Amino acid sequence: MFKKIFILTSWLLLANSEPIKEILEDEPIGCQAQVTNGFDIAFVKVGTYRGYTNEGKEYQKSYFFPKYFRNGMAEAKAICKAYNLELATFETITETLMVLNMCENNEYIKSIADPKNFWIVIDAMTTTPKSATEWFWTNSGRKISFTVPWAPNQPDFFENHEYCLAIGKDQSTPNYRFNDMPCLNINRPFLCQNFDYMITL
Questions:
Q1: pLDDT tens for residues 3-56?
Q2: In this structure, which topology does domain 2-198 adopt according to CATH?
Q3: Which residues form the signal peptide (predicted)?
């Protein structure tokens, strides 16, 4: 029940003046064309992480960065899904720090990133502006279980509409950290993931 309520509330926050049905159902322009051209054309593999969830389940995930797509969270989720991927989530702080390091040191990302302002959208939202702890993964409704490594003075809920989450850096931090971001009407790269496996026994 909580998951359903949270997801509904999250998407209502995203809606603003646009119909919620339009956000959830519209196909991103050019998405299917990119699929037919091949996965390797559309994405760069950032890396792979293998570890254990907080419940002790072993898992492995791989992460992919889009070469051409630049979108807000709703469109990013749809594009990842079109390639049988998911918008990235993190199970533990260990995974989080590893992925931050992977993205920061990936040669392709470094070649296109603006060191003064570069943020990558991931799959999390809040319903509590300026809160450092009340953030949830939208694909499951689960609260983020670890202390988020925020960039300095973040989250700041800039211009009263930053309900989504991104990783990256700007002039305030030398290393990749977290930042709150607008959910709509932005052109940002994003990070997709694939669960290679999870051992549930």
A1: 443 333 344 444 443 332 333 333 333 333 334 346 789 999 999 999 999 999
A2: Mannose-Binding Protein A; Chain A (3.10.100)
A3: 1-17
